[in-house]
């Protein structure tokens, strides 16, 4: 495959930083972005470019950054929508502004960056959108409802844009990672609210303890995940000779939990088929 130019959001740590190193090693070009440019300046030592991009900024300002990114090499071939964080707390304990902040990054920011890149992809008749979703886009675990709802919404966004653009030479890959050893649960990235409601104290204390314990003990190796995604984009390695799917769960925990949910959903449809299919006009 010819050399590709990638633009990646959220490169200050985690998957984003691993993407930069792995892509450069494959011989492609990378434009790394982050809200705080100082945190990604060191990535320029790899040969990557570094641009400041706050995905919660206005559409106009984001458009300007994307135009600058395109001017560096004359094109963008792959957009990786990676920037995200977790707001932990029960539905009652989180206020509206905290929900809005969660969606501004995990969903609305992703929408704005995607909208900025799509015109270039359409003009090129070529491009690939990569969305980093989550197991939480399938299962709403207690205490992370804000994060889960943003990732459920991201699933719908990715599926819709895939169907809108697949006939225009644009490919879409929705990746659904499980628990990987990134900095997502670090004190810097995790925004947690201890419950002030007696009925939720046990749930809240258990959740915050587990999240603290799981930080840097998650089973998934982010380097392996990134390698697989690059294979999917470049249609090589594990993707060589295989049809690249739209949806790609990654992680043993995702496989087990997603299979359980699919099995229970199929059973529901079978057990309640007579009721489910009974609502049309006679």
Tell me the radius of gyration.
20 Å
What's the CATH C level?
Answer: Alpha Beta
What is the structural class? alpha/beta
Strand content is 5-15%
Q: Which shape, going by the Cα principal axes?
A: globular
- Provide the CATH superfamily: NAD(P)-binding Rossmann-like Domain
Total helical elements:
8
- What is the succession of H and E elements? EHEEHEEHEHEEHHEHH
List low-confidence stretches.
none
GO molecular function: oxidoreductase activity
InterPro entries: NAD(P)-bd_dom_sf, Sc_DH/Rdtase_CS, SDR_fam, SDR_oxidoreductase
Family: Belongs to the short-chain dehydrogenases/reductases (SDR) family.
Keywords: NADP, Oxidoreductase
What attributes characterize this protein structure?
282 residues, alpha/beta, Rossmann fold, two-stranded parallel sheet, globular, oxidoreductase activity, Sc_DH/Rdtase_CS, SDR_oxidoreductase
Topology:
Layout: E1 5-8, H1 14-26, E2 29-34, E3 49-52, H2 59-73, E4 78-81, E5 87-88, H3 96-124, E6 127-132, H4 145-165, E7 170-177, E8 191-192, H5 201-214, H6 222-234, E9 247-250, H7 252-271, H8 273-276
Parallel strand pairs: 1-2, 1-4, 2-3, 4-6, 5-8, 6-7, 7-9
Your description of this structure?
By secondary structure, this protein is an alpha/beta fold. It is 46% helix and 14% strand. It has a single domain (5-256), classed as NAD(P)-binding Rossmann-like Domain (Rossmann fold), CATH 3.40.50.720. A 7-stranded parallel β-sheet has the order 3-2-1-4-6-7-9, sandwiched between helices. Helix 1 (14-26) crosses helix 6. The longest helix has 29 residues, at 96-124.
